[in-house]
Amino acid sequence: MKKLQIPAFGESEYFENRENDRSVVYMISNVDANAFSAYCDLFAEQGYTQMEQRRTDTHLYAAYVKDAEAIFLNYFGAVRELTLVVETDSPYFTYTDHPTDATVIPQITQMEIADFGMSYVIRLSDGRFIVIDGGRDFAIDREHLFLHLRAASVHEKPIIAAWILSHPHADHFHLFVGFVDQYAEDVVIEKMFFLFPEADDLAHYPKLEKSDPRFDYDNSETTYIRKLHERIERLGLPIYRPHTGQIYRIGDAVCEILGCMDDTLHATQNINAASLVIRMELGGQVIFWATDAPMSVMRLPEKYGDYLKADILQIPHHGFQSGTAEGEIRGYERIQPRVCFLPVSDYNAYTAFCAHREGTRYLMTQAPIDELITGTPTRTIELPYTPPSYAKEALRRSYLAGQDNCGAKMWFFDGLCTSEPSDFVFTLLNSTHVPTTVWIELFFEDRSRWVRHIKVDLSPLKMRRISIVGDEVNSDALPFNWLSLAEQGIPENAAFSVRFLSDLPILVSHDRHAAVYHSQNR
Asked: Over the stretch 482-498, which tens digit does the pLDDT of each residue have?
């Protein structure tokens, strides 16, 4: 690749990163919109042809080409950042798609899969499909995907107009390898979309070579990225490497790339931050595909503002949270979806994982959404989609049931005595996958003996047997607490009660005393 002189105007705050064997990313910080115009003029002077240019209130985009070299520019005024991607042999400007006449109603299907992961099938109006990810390389998921494609197809063989792989994590792209090994003769795949690091890019992404020990074969991303390219080459499929700002029309779906590896390569080793973020228009509605992208790391709400508004949101990172909760919530406030897809089971959505993450809890309890669709069972909606009238109440009931399934946030025990050492011993259980903090208070007949803010941390899926006055707890957790256990001490032979307060629902039990009250998570 010919080395361009970037930065060209003496900018001091910039990064340069080789993204893969074809592209280099330059990120120039703390500049205004004049920098965007200056680079556009520079490329024109150097003989590049401008192929595209767009602007919104928050975003400037342009694309240039010269011989085998393409340049994609994005400027975001809110963060004062200019990104330039220089790519050799870019297929973007030769992109073609061949839709046929509209014959069916467009659909989105969220596939139920065997383990954590993501698999979506979008049926276009001409009967072809877009597949997003697919999940792990499990035979049962390969079969379910093929059977669904065959059942929903109007063609003799299902035609996958585009298979989009969001990022190189096992629960998103591994299935493609096994699927084409098993079903390549039974489907037509027209083109592939993904922007992955090289398999051996351990400088940017050291976890690419990590293999999951639960499986008895090498399932590292290093290995599977190579397998992915081997299968694509064997089938002769064209690969399109999406970059921020590009727009692809796949049948009647208009797909705009709002974020990708370009934007975060310099900032983090988190592979989730390399995820594609896609704004799709289909069936008269806007669908926001967040895949596993952390909104705070990608700074999507700051960059795009109200342009993020969408009718349907695929909740990022399975609702487990990626990046900060504050950044995620800022994104949701901009997107303002009516309908959310959450690619996990009901159990993981409401009981074990998602409902205890601040961002997803916001969607479930505070955001004005009408329906949340989890990944069990497989669910298909037709576009344009209007949620049923009962959906909001169903979401409320599911959320409350999930909280109750975990326990309660407050437990109260009475009839205890300080002369009985065993009365200080309790068992605490956190059945969620999220850590929580438990605060303990002791009450006595003599109000002046009150003890508050004893602290104990409870790890995910952790059962702990503790003495509430022992070494297992932090008896002086606050910088100033004149009612701490260390200050107050424990009176002899005194009746007392104890209250446990937790950030999340937990279970608290005692060998001889039953709780006299616990909250109802209302």
From this structure: 999 999 999 999 999 99
> Which CA distances in Å does 279 have to 239, 311, 319, 522?
20, 11, 19, 36
Q: Which residue spans within 349-435 are E strands per DSSP?
A: 371-374, 379-382, 408-417, 425-430
Token pair belonging to 191: 């083109």
Q: Is residue 322 predicted with pLDDT exceeding 90? A: no
Dihedral angle over CA of 211, 213, 216, 218, nearest 10: 10
Would you state the structure tokens that stand for residue 33, as one six-digit string?
């919109």
Residue whose pair of structure tokens reads 């963060």 in the numeric block: 79
Contact present, 313 and 372 (Cβ < 8 Å): no
- 253 contacts: CB under 8 Å, gap ≥ 6: 106, 122, 124, 130, 280, 281, 282
Phi and psi at 5, nearest 5°, equal -85, 85
R_g (Cα) of the chain, nearest Å: 27
Q: Can you give the pTM of this predicted structure?
A: 0.95
Closest among 108, 111, 123, 120 to 161, alpha carbons compared: 123
Percent composition of the chain: helix, strand, coil (DSSP 3-state, to 5):
25, 30, 40
Contact 235, 163 (CB under 8 A): no
